[in-house]
Design a protein that fits this description.
CATH architecture of the largest domain: 3-Layer(aba) Sandwich
Strand order of the largest sheet: 2-8-7-6-5-3-4
Radius of gyration: 22 Å
Largest sheet: 7 strands, mixed
Strand content: 5-15%
Number of strands: 12
Number of helices: 16
Order of helices and strands: HHHEHHEHHEHEHEHEEHEHHHEHEEEH
Shape: globular
Oligomer: single chain
Helix content: 40-55%
Structural class: alpha/beta
CATH topology of the largest domain: Aspartate Aminotransferase, domain 2
Distance between the termini: 72 Å
Number of domains: 2
């Protein structure tokens, strides 16, 4: 029997979307770093948002102590104790009561949850296919939309309005055909925050246009630690970043994570909470994805969600780093205002480089400082660089000297 053999090349082995998928930018940063280390050069890595602060010991102990003698498949729903801990966090942090009508399910961090949700939303409500997201922003918003056969629609953020995405300003046809919109405040990479009034307006808009509001709240507990010392008598005086689920669960989902809040990036643990109709539906879908968290990870997550003090200590560290680094960039004319949240500095690049952010960042890399050019974190924005303040204080001081010398030389 004759066999029709196709030429053995990648074009025949993968679909067009996979072949044309852009390389994930953080992988390029890892390659540059590896080359520097091979050369024996000191490396100050501001590239990836993965702080090297030891995870709180009780979290580690809870994980180790829960490793079973016999390993079995975990439930995609997670244990009841985990749900109670997550609900307790939402009530303490946002005053969202467990009986207020929302549903909740665990996730393996936020990245997989962000990626998979598009598969459940593209084509909803008569065929809505557009998914809107901020530019600059998390690259997975775009890639997940494409894999779900949706239509990506990036909205360029502007410093002029505090990097707020205002969906009511979108073209009418997009507002009609918007299946979902991603928002991310505090925002990666700009560090921008949103007011309670903004969130109320966005929630109202989502209801009016039948759009699912997806809030990527990975950095919601990474804010200026000085706020923790201010008394709060009512909601309007609360300066902490707000969550849209505080205002409604109808067509609203929040994606929470322990990666930045508790330094558990490698544990891959978070949750999705919000509209019960949507959560019930995606629970059925997620049973097919293989995303159930191991019980020992869930035990660590329970410990993390039940405690707020270790998070306060992490906030102090990031606030101190911003206080150290922001003035250096401000004195160089590359930063107007220090951010009130996240641990990122979204800085301009020196005028001599024009819009050549990649050239600027590669030049810094030759001096051992790794940072991310805005071209890698966006679809249309040049002329900025993101510094993730993950190096420890002593290394941070040394790196800031390298940066200053490179720019003024």
């Amino acid at each position: 029997m004759a066999v029709n053999k196709q030429p053995a090349n990648a074009q025949n082995k993968l679909n067009k979307l996979t072949l044309e998928l852009e390389e994930y930018p953080m992988e390029e940063l890892a390659r540059i770093k590896k080359e520097l280390i091979k050369k024996g050069r000191p490396v100050f890595d501001f590239g990836t948002g993965d702080p090297k602060i030891p995870t709180w010991e009780p979290i580690r102990d809870a994980c180790v102590n829960a490793i079973p003698e016999i390993s079995q498949y975990p439930s995609v729903k997670g244990p009841d104790d985990l749900r109670v801990a997550q609900q307790g966090y939402l009530e303490r942090r946002f005053d969202i009561k467990p009986d207020s009508g929302y549903s909740i399910i665990p996730s393996s961090g936020s990245k997989e949850a962000i990626f998979h949700i598009a598969m459940c939303l593209v084509g909803r409500s008569g065929g809505k296919k557009h998914i809107v997201y901020p530019d600059p922003g998390y690259p997975v918003y775009r890639s997940s939309t494409k894999f779900a056969h949706g239509i990506p629609f990036p909205i360029k953020l502007s410093e002029s309005n505090g990097y707020l995405l205002e969906p009511w300003e979108m073209p009418p046809y997009i507002q009609r055909d918007c299946a979902a919109i991603w928002l991310n405040y505090p925002q990666n990479p700009t560090g921008a925050t949103a007011t309670r009034e903004y969130w109320k307006n966005v929630v109202d808009w989502a209801h009016k246009t039948d759009t699912i509001l997806l809030s990527d709240d990975c950095y919601i507990d990474i804010y200026n630690s000085e706020i923790d010392n201010k008394p709060v008598e009512n909601d309007e005086e609360d300066e902490r970043p707000a969550c849209p689920l505080q205002f409604s669960s109808d067509r609203v989902l929040t994606f929470q994570s322990l990666s930045k809040r508790s330094g558990m990036t490698g544990y891959r643990s978070g949750f999705i909470a919000g509209d019960s109709d949507i959560v019930k539906g995606i629970l059925k879908a997620r049973a097919n994805f293989g995303v159930g968290s191991p019980d020992f990870i869930s035990s660590a997550a329970i410990t993390a969600w039940n405690d707020d003090e270790h998070v306060r200590e992490r906030r102090k560290i990031f606030t101190n780093r911003i206080k150290m680094a922001a003035p250096v960039f401000q004195n160089l004319g590359l930063l107007d205002n220090a951010p009130d949240a996240t641990f990122y500095l979204w800085t301009k690049i020196p005028e001599v480089f024009g819009t050549g952010d990649v050239r600027y960042c590669l030049g810094l890399a030759e001096h051992g400082v790794i940072c991310s050019p805005s071209s890698w974190l966006s679809e249309s924005i040049k002329g900025y660089a993101r510094f993730a303040l993950v190096p420890e204080e002593e290394s941070l001081k040394e790196a800031l000297e390298v940066i200053r010398d490179y720019i003024i030389s």
